[in-house]
Design a protein that fits this description.
It contains eight helices and seven strands; from the N terminus they run αβααββββαβαβααα. By secondary structure, it is of the alpha+beta class. The protein has a single domain (9-203), classed as Pleckstrin-homology domain (PH domain)/Phosphotyrosine-binding domain (PTB) (PH-domain like). A hairpin with a 5-residue loop joins strand 3 and strand 4. The protein is elongated. The protein starts with a helix and ends with a helix.
């Protein structure tokens, strides 16, 4: 009984913070719009959110354990100093940890991937919102990446490489690059990769119509000369000859 009440209280607190930040920073709740047909909007999977939480707890423990060890040593030798110094430190660390924990949820809620028949638009960020649009005509390759913990949680990331950039570098650099698209938290990466590559091929071949242009606009080599054309050429040649005779 206590566990559902705890989760419900946590959800109420989070929704309250989310409402305040949405109003304060004008954070959009809806996915970005994208012109075109076959528009598909999606977000990272729940495993990605758990993955970020695991990273948060590992980082928090890595910070708290050394502080606690130092505090224990000081507490044994100088209790008053330990209380005076460590209590503010713990308060600051826990406050920063709470802010980071809430930002993980907000980052999950504000991350969107929108695909149309022509392009891909990626939006992420809470304090600073980043939107990147990649046209499928410029896509060179789509890679699937998956770490050990991602494999355990059952999801992968897709790195979309374009003509103007590469797919290497730190994750933060990939997230904010205008030449590389990073789609995180994909439960079916092979299906999504094939869907993107299908749109890439369709986008590159759309609207060419070379064979129709050839049929409707014959080249000069296939144009037949009529008697009227030949007569006009004879008149031009005779006129040139008269001009030459006069100048001579």
């Amino acid at each position: 009984m206590k566990a559902p009440l705890t989760r419900q209280a946590s959800a109420w607190v989070y929704q309250g913070v989310w409402a305040v930040l949405t109003e304060l920073f004008h954070v959009p709740r809806q996915p970005p719009s994208l012109p075109g047909s076959q528009v598909l909007a999606m977000r990272p999977c729940d495993g990605w959110l758990l993955y970020r939480k695991v990273g948060f707890w590992i980082g928090l423990l890595a910070t708290m354990i050394p502080i606690s060890a130092v505090g224990l040593v000081i507490l044994i030798s100088r209790p008053v100093l330990a209380v005076a110094v460590l209590v503010p430190v713990f308060v600051v660390v826990l406050g920063m940890g709470l802010a980071s924990y809430v930002s993980i949820h907000l980052g999950y809620d504000t991350t969107w991937y929108v695909l149309s028949d022509r392009s891909l638009r990626i939006r992420r960020g809470v304090w600073t919102i980043h939107e990147t649009t990649i046209t499928f005509e410029n896509v060179q390759n789509v890679k699937i990446t998956q770490g050990p913990l991602q494999r355990l949680l059952g999801f992968s990331d897709l790195v979309i490489e374009t003509a103007g950039g590469g797919g290497s570098g730190p994750r933060q650099q990939l997230e904010h690059s205008s030449h590389v698209g990073l789609i995180e938290g994909v439960e079916a990466p092979n299906e999504l990769r094939e869907q993107i590559m299908t749109r890439v091929r369709a986008s590159r071949s759309a609207g060419l119509g070379d064979e129709h242009d050839t049929e409707s606009h014959p080249t000069s080599a296939s144009t037949s000369w009529t008697p009227a054309h030949l007569e006009a050429l004879r008149e031009i040649a005779a006129h040139v000859a008269r001009l030459r005779a006069r100048s001579g």
